[in-house]
Amino acid sequence: MQHMKMQIFEIGLLILAAYTGGRLAQKLKIGEVVGQIIGGVLVGPHFLELIHRVLLRYAFLNRYIVFKPIYHFYNSQFSEYAKVLESYHFFVFLFLGIIAFSIGEELHRDRLRRVGLAATFICVLQALLTFLLGFLGFWLIFHFSVINALLMGSMGIATAPALTFVLMNKLKIEGRLKNILANIVVLDDVIEVIFFSIFFGIALALQRGTALSVTHLAAGIVEELFFAALIGVVIFLILKVTIRKKLPREEDFPDDQNFLSQVTSAHPTPSVEILLVITGIVAIGISVAIDFDLPFLITAVIAGFLVSNFHSHALFDSLKIENVMPLFNLMFFAIIGSSVRVESLSVGSLPYVLGYLILRTAGKLFGNWAGCRLTGQDEKITACLPKLMLPQAGMAAVETIMVATALAPSGGGKLFDTIIPALVIFELVGAWLSEKTLIKWKNWIVGEQEALKKPGIAVDNQSLSGLIEGRIFELSAGTRNDAIFELGQFCVKEQIVPEIGIVADPVREREKLAPTAIGRGIALPHCRLGTVDRTIVVCGLLRHPVDWNAPDGQPVDLVFLLLSPDERPEEHLKAIRTISLALQKTGFIEGLKQAAAEKSAERYLKQFTCNT
Q: Residue 212 and residue 205: Cα distance in Å, rounded?
């Protein structure tokens, strides 16, 4: 009962500390996630142990009734407290596995095709640059042995995707940024596993005094990746059998179907039930991978990749349920904070820690920036992507512990004392920087809505008829996504863009952030593109109104799709303002719909422009 009492107490303490820290951080505008991590730090055993050391210097305080419970806690219950918190670390690895599985959503073959070789080039460039800076810096500047410097360089490659993707899900960010980031971090971890496995194997051989075998090292790496992928395949097969691809109908359950299959089968509609099934199956899979010392993140990513491409994409929506995931996110950051080893920061290791921080940061920031510029990425992606690659935990933490344990006689402890404090800083600073960057990205995407509310934006005599230029057609879509797809098809047909995805993807991304329906049956989907050189509006008239999550609850039957040049955001805002002014004119919406029914919408727009 004492142990169970402590478990319940610490769960409550972690939740309250992280929640309070997050709220205070929001007030101070330093990022909610940073506050949640700091809340976990303050109730973690490592920070409390420092408080204990301070109290030991002032033993006379024990005579005062206010301090007696504190001293009693440290003397009789602190060891149990620390042990219980350490036992919660499994949740971090479980959550890492779930996030790695969710990355598979971004690895659908269509998305991979659109990203092309750009993500691969960016990843390889930044990985090699980070590795070389880490290796050369610790070898030439800090005079580490060659093999230990190589290990430092290889571990610097690792990137922790969990924190960034948790923030993306929280902020409902989709689209190309998330897609290209997913491709990079997956390949990044594969490269890191290969580099680390090679140099760790060499270090062990040198420490034992045994001969090095290139064949043995290569076979070991291939074996690790193969079996990690194999477990991922098994996870996929179980999910495919357990979760049905189509909605269940009566004919899906014939009389001869056995009872077990009826009980275990579920359809992929987003639900807490599907979240539980995915969590249970992925948890068992990654536990098997960990038991065999396999890269468990690779296992989870492979499973997610297979589900995305060969089963139902809808499974991933269950990992974003708004009423459930905030609690998981908060617990994740709270436990990360409680695990921070504050005592690992020492004066002796400080130069090495600072060196690691500087060298890895330079490699990640410059490597990703250069890769984005060389592959011609959008300026917003070039500005954001490098800052999202700094968080580092997960795989790097596991490997650091392996190095400290297995290579203790040959400097493993020195590597541990260098990387662990750096991981703490990368998590805190990375959380703050990632949150600020993603909020800025979201503001770039959704900031256009302010133009609908501010009458002070000039329109430069812009006319709605001039923006549309006769691009009015009828939509047969039955859903919002179908309408967006048809608008993309029309843009390809009119040679506005070469591919449907160029329009459909950013518009859908914008819709996930906030619906563009404004009421009265009107929707204004919009995006900025690098493939158009002027502002273009396409008007779609729906045969049957569709739900668009409008603020007044009315379905939409009139859609204005706005496309504008990426490098000229002011034109985007002016065009939105032009449409807004037209829609505010008495009788315009009704007149346009009536004219559309009579096949005279183009003439009506020209006449409206002349009259106004």
A: 6
* Axis crossing angle, helix 500-513 with helix 412-446, rounded to the nearest 10: 90
First to last CA, the chain: 79
Amino acid symbol at 358: I
Instruction: Give the global pTM.
Output: 0.59
Residue 82 corresponds to which tokens in the numbers above? 């620390």
Per-residue model confidence as pLDDT tens digits over 46-87:
888 888 888 888 877 777 787 788 887 888 888 888 888 878
Structure tokens at 444: 């770039």
**526 part of the active site:** yes
Q: Among the residues of 345-411, which ranges form H helices? A: 350-374, 379-384, 395-406
| Residue range 282-296, pLDDT digits in tens | 999 989 988 887 877
Residues 480 and 490 grouped into a single domain: yes
Same domain membership, residue 470 and residue 437: no
Angstrom distance (rounded) from CA 389 to CA 180:
12
- Helices 601-611 and 588-597, packing angle to 10 deg: 150
Residues 414 and 486 in one domain: no
Written as one string, the DSSP assignment of 91-114 is: HHHHHHHHHHHHHGGGG-HHHHHH
C-alpha 65 chain-centroid distance? 49
| Count of structural domains, the chain | 3
Q: Considering 46, 143, 526, 572, which one is annotated as catalytic?
A: 526
